[in-house]
Amino acid sequence: MASTSNTTPDLSRGRPYLAIPGPSVMPDRVLNAMHRGAPNIYAGALPDMVAAMWPDLRAVACTSQHVAAYIANGHAVWEAANANLFSRGDRALVLATGRFGLSWAESAKAMGIDVEVMDFGKSSPIDMSRVEDRLRADGEGRIKAVLTTHVDTASSIRTDVPALRAAMDAAGHGALLAVDCIASLGCDEYRMDDWGVDVTVAASQKGLMTPPGMGFVWFSERARQRCEGSDLRTPYWAWGPRAEPSEFWQYWDGTAPTHHLFGLREALTMILHEEGLENIWARHEVLARAVWAAFDAWGAGNPRIALNVADPAHRSRAVTAARLGAPDATRLRDWTERQAGVTLGIGLGMAAPDDPAWHGFLRVAHMGHVNAHMTLGALAAMEAGMIALDIPHGSGALRAAAEVIGRA
Ligand SMILES: *Cc1c(COP(=O)(O)O)cnc(C)c1O
What's the rounded Cα separation, in Å, for the pair 216 and 304? Predict the structure, then answer.
């Protein structure tokens, strides 16, 4: 019999887990739904399926208003929102809580929009009283829209959207409110109509559990009317025909993303008709709390280990940004991928990639098609890595995470 004593086991063999915040884990059902020949795009099953799918697309954002879909990623739907909302020279107020808010601002600026950024840093929520004051000072109502992220995936800060709406109302300002829900839709509670949001953008590859390649812009009737004359709008990006097509091709301004649509149909069935949005929000809440509990315990034994967002009220339920001190975050990510089959997210926007400090940040995604054993497994893999790499850490993290899940 061969001896195994001199072999180094490869403990990553088995099903890998991509725990970066997008693309997220794709359910086999979604992948299987896409595995088929090219469908007829003029008549039959595909157009019928899409017509029936639009009410579900509205439902996932909790709106009864309009939705336009694009063959696009998240960056593209920022531009779609910009193009429909603004004319050249219109003013936008961007409230940034991390890299993604800043990037939306940059895209708007490059398109000729007069962008003002209020940057709340990398680990603090929006200060609503400062926003209220700023809007009050805009007596002429020059600011046409306020743009922000529901969850900034880089910092994992979650914005209290109802509080933002309340601040805008308290200032008596009529600006439209546009929210990036790319990381949060289908994970964190979000109610577009109840919360008074005018524009919501999202993409297929995160909470919607479908491969990257489809983007969505939901818009209110108020936004549709207010933005009718926007001169940045070009035929491809115009939201009107996509939201109310008279022929099937107009949903996409061309050929439909055929296979993505079969995948998305399956994902929406799982989200809306099987688990249900409220159950999904509750599942993400528990998984997030398990991750936070583990970090708190690890950090008790090593002050370099900490969550990026101090107050749980302002934390995403879909992704957790944390610091471990450089270079331990990079060492740990490399170890969990190589030795445990778990790929964690890089730190984004927390330090420049050529700064040694960059290696002190990482993110754990708990987004979309993720369950208790996946999150507990990712946390256990991280702890094994800390042991292997001699990274000091407090004890009891796995017990603390299991307590959260066991008592949910
Ligand atoms: C992922 C993400 C984006 C960018 O999406 P891409 O598809 O990579 O262009 C934008 N905003 C947020 C909040 C995100 O999480």
Answer: 39
* Closest ligand 1 atom, residue 100 Cα: 11
Q: What ligand 1 atom has the least distance to the C-alpha of 149?
A: 13
Return the CATH class of domain 40-256: alpha beta
**154 Cβ inside 6 Å of ligand 1:** no
Phi, psi of 392, deg, nearest 5: -60, 140
The set of long-range contacts for 159-166, using a CB threshold of 8 Å and a minimum separation of 24, is 159/95, 159/97, 159/125, 159/126, 160/125, 160/126, 160/128, 160/313, 160/314, 161/190, 161/195, 161/197, 162/195, 162/196, 163/128, 164/95, 164/126, 164/128, 164/131, 165/195, 165/196, 165/197, 166/128
pLDDT in tens, 58-105: 999 999 999 999 999 999 999 999 999 999 999 999 999 999 999 999
Domain 17-24+276-406: give its CATH architecture. Answer: Alpha-Beta Complex (3.90)
* CB 149 less than 6 A from any atom of ligand 1: yes
Q: In angstroms, what is the span from residue 76 Cα to ligand 1's centroid? A: 9
- The predicted structure's pLDDT at residue 6: 79
75 lines ligand 1 (CB under 6 A): yes
Domain ranges of the chain: 17-24+276-406, 40-256
Going by their DSSP bridges, the two strands 342-346 and 361-365 should be labelled as antiparallel
Q: 152 forms bridges with which residues in the sheet? A: 157
Span 155-169, pLDDT tens digits: 999 999 999 999 999
Question: Is any atom of ligand 1 closer than 6 Å to the C-beta of 22?
Answer: yes
Give the Cα separation of 393 and 408 in Å (integer). Answer: 25
